[in-house]
Every structure is written in C-alpha cells, then in structure tokens.
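Quality-control log, excerpt.
Job 1 of 2 completed; input and output follow.
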Amino acid sequence: MSFLKTFLVFGFLTAYAKSQSSGQAGSFNATPEIGEKFGCGSKCQTLINIANTADLAITGTAFDFGFYETAANFSFSRPGDLLKLEPMNTSSLDIDYGTSVYRFQYTTRDQDGSSVPSTGFIAFPFSIPKSGKFRPVVYGHSSVGVSRSCAPSNGPGLFESAVWGPLVARGYAIIATDYAGIGNNYTTHKFSNYATHSEDMYYSMVAARAAFPRLFTKEWASAGVFQGGGGVWKLSEHPLVQHPRSGYLGGIAVSPSPRLYDYALFSLDTIYTKPDYMDFGATGEIPFAALAVKRMFPEYDYHFLGNTLKRRMGLVDELQLCTNAVLALVLDLPIEELLSVDGLKNDTFFQQYQRLGGAANGAKAATPLWVSTGEDDSFLRPYSVLEPAAKTCSYGNKLDVRVYPGMDHEPTIYASMEDWIPWIEDRFDGIRRPGCCTNITKTPFNLATAKKSNVWADYLDIAASIPSD
C-alpha cells in the first residue's frame, strides 16, 4: 500500500461519484444494486467510490487497451522474449526531469510453469555512463491491486517513482514489471505469490536486455517494496540466480511479508482478537491475504473470512477494484464479519499457499539480501520480517536486517533509503559485506521531530465521517 494519503484526501474532498471514462478498465463505482448483491450497504458503497477516486489518480482513467492486449507474437515465444516495446510520452508523466521511459511487454512463467505475457516499463537516467553501460535494478512494486486496470505502467506517475526515482537519479536503469495479470489479463494476477513474482522479475531483466542489447552491465540487482519485497526475497532463492554467471548481485526487500500465513496467525493473537483491531492496517490486509490464496487456488472459498467480507470479495472482480477500494471493504465491519478464527487456524489452502508461493521456506541463496522493518508499522508488524529473517539466517543465507524505530509502513521506505541505496552501490562496486547475517536497529537523530505518518489513520478518519447504514 503506497503513497495513498494524498490521493485519499483528494478523493474525499472531491466528488466521489466521478463519471466513468470511456477508456476506463476498472475501479468502477458501486451502485445500490451491486451493493445489495454483494452485502455492501450505503456506507460500504460510499467508501468504495471514494477509494476508487484515489485509485484512479494512481492508475489513470484512460487505459491503453491496445498496448496491454496480448501481442500477436506471444504464441511462439519463450520466457524472456520481448513482445512489444514503445517509448512513453514523458511530458505527460509525473516523474523526474531528464528520465526516459519505455513500456514493454514480455513473456514470463505462470505458477504452473506455462508461458504468460507480462508488461512493465524501463526507466533510464539522462546521461550515458562513462562505461557505456547502465547498472540495472529490477524493481518490484508494492500492492497496487489485482485487476488489469491497476498497472503501474499505465499510471500518470508510474506508481512508486518516489522510490525507484532516486535510483535513476544515481545513474541506475530501472526495469519495473507490472507482474503478470496486471495490465495484460491473459492470466489472473497471482497476488503475493512470490514464486510467480520472482519469475516476472527475472524474465523482465532478460527481456530488457533483448530490448536494449549491450546497454546494461552483466551485473544486476533487485529492489522491492512490501509485495515486491516478498518477490525480491523469493528471487534470491530462484535457481537461475544461484550461479555467478547469472550476474545477480543481491536484492533489497523493504518491509516484506514472505510468510503470509505465519503472519496471519501472529496477527490473530496480537491484533484481530483485541478490541482495537481496527486501529491496525493489518486488518485492512485481510482481504488481500484471502485474494493471495484465491488467485493460487481458484476453487478456494475464502475459508478464513467472515460471512459479510466473504460476500464482498465478489466486488473485486465485479468492479475491477484496485488497492484503496479493496482496503475499503473492511472499514465498516465488526471483526466477526471480517474473520473466522477457526477458519484461519484450520485453513489448509492458506498453509499450502505459503509452502508454494512463500519465501524463507528453507531454500539456499547464493547472494545477499537486505531487508527492513519499521517498529511502528501497523500493516506489517516487525514479526513479518524478523521471524522469516531468523529462518533465512538459520539456512546459512546472507542477510542484512535493519529496524527503524518509530516508523510506520510507508515512512520506513524513506527512512531506510540512506541505507539501502548505498548497499546496492556496494554490491556493484564489489565491496564485500561482513559476516553471514547482521541485525541492526537504527538510532534516530531525533525521533520526536522526525516526520512520521500513519496512513491507516487516514482511512479510519474518512470512514468515521460517513454515516452508518
């Protein structure tokens, strides 16, 4: 969940009953008829429609159906093949001056190993390096949604440019996948299936080399935020990057949750069964966790959800919702309508999802991984990082953990940037990191005056301002 506060406030202050653009592919507004069908009353409908305004500000109202249509040459392609490439009109993009961007479609692998299309973008700095080759970093975005219309490469700001933009400013080229199923809808998006995300990341690098031969160094790295951080963690375990000839140097995983079922059980004990459960962004994660399992196992019946939220999950496909609107599904519900305690404890599908799509499941990694967590992260509590990190270290993998006191979900990205950008630079420069694993809690200069943010509180404020049914 990234960079939503400004858009939420904007959405609240403007007309949430925004007219639907003829070029729109998703984030459609809820009507009373649709709401009645899916157990979503007037307050629920209002929250979705406000959230849709925020989502459309991120993903755009004019979806480029032609570009995201499956390429004619896909049928005979193999993973890593380049299918489409076109320059983007940067004058209309909210990105840093001097940046050049190309949109591309390429072939990757789905969870069953079959070939599927994916899309994304490649961003270049203004100047060519002295060596003539750019250092490439594959980027995995955070949760933007599960529908085709949520594609970062279609958005006016290419989603998290405030995260990957500083890398471009340091001279790196960014290869940013949308993930299969977002943008192009040949397959469904396997949300937080880190195995498929790692495939999308790996083959985006292969396709980028095909798009721009001899323009990248052999060495490459990765960086990801939240959902993308889980993909980076899994990429570190990918068989194709375990040999030095792959050129892979390591990755950055900002506030990931590589073992979602374990984290759900932790949240059950520490958040969901407490009176203040709605004060935590982790409660907003409940429908996303359910979608992760559903997209891996289509027959899954949302076993761990409460009855009302289970009905509302149909709105995700009906209205082609993106992140803000999915979060809005929980804001007016008591915990018993959100979650089944027994269902969660005994959810064999969820357990199997973690075994197949999670990371830190026992695999070895030849390259180092840098991970962070914010001590005050209300979406992904530090447990979501620290417990998998301990497991990963016990396997003999190289891991650098950094903990940021007083930082919530999004602020951790920026508080940690002064650490993880130099970490990437050190990998490209061949500087050896010490030891097997490190775990350091950072010392703030002045936590009392450091800028902070609680994004989830903004959702709650908006929900509180809307009359109940």
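Job 2 of 2 completed; input and output follow.
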Amino acid sequence: MTDNIRNKEFLGQGLTFPLQINSRGGIALAKGENDIAQAIQIILQTSPGERVMRPEFGCRLQELVFAPKNTETINMVIAYVTDALDRWEPRIELQSVNVLDDPQSDGALLVEINYIVSSTYNERSIVYPFYLSGEE
C-alpha cells in the first residue's frame, strides 16, 4: 500500500459542512486535510448535549458567550478548545491554542489553532472567531 493511499484512508472523507451539492447532483464530500479542518469547526460549534446519540460530543465554548472579555475567560477558551480537540479529533497533534482580540469587533475573540496532521506531518492553522456578549 502506498503512503498516499494510507494517508487518504487515515484522513478520510466526510460530508461538507455546511452541506453542499456536487456537480453531479450528489452530496459533496470533504476529503483529507479539508475534512479535518471542517471537523474542527464542527467540534467547536457543537455544544455538549446537542447530539442525541453522542451527548458528550462537542466543545463547551458556548458556555462563555455571556462571559466578560477578560483573562479568565480567555484562559477558559483555551482550555475548552484544547480539551475538545484532544478528545474528539485524533487525526491531529495540537501544537497551540492562542486567543487574540479581534480588532474589527469589540465582542469578538480570534481563536488561533495550530496543529500538525498526524499522518502527513503537515502544519496547519485555523482562526476561529468566537463572539462574546458579556461586558468587560
């Protein structure tokens, strides 16, 4: 088995998120590293308890929507994202989670997630915007 085939099997494929239709009229699939990036988005956007058959799945970020924008909240964002990705995305090796102020929005944080795809050793980065409604 070639490395390329092995990597595709490990990285896998899944439905695109949000759902899309491909050029042949079927449901579009995300493959490889794009599937991983979409899976990370799904993990972060899903609150524990939302999935009927897997109620523990997701990330606790939504618990912080009304929290103030301060050091304690930032530390909790880092902890929640780290815990969720370590638990639910086995195809990556999480390198760091950093939280930055969004200069374009008073209530937004930019969550920078740096990771390595385990099977290819490719370094990747995602910036996930997280919006707070709390007061400082």
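Post-run check on job 2. The helical segments are 3-11, 32-45, 71-88.
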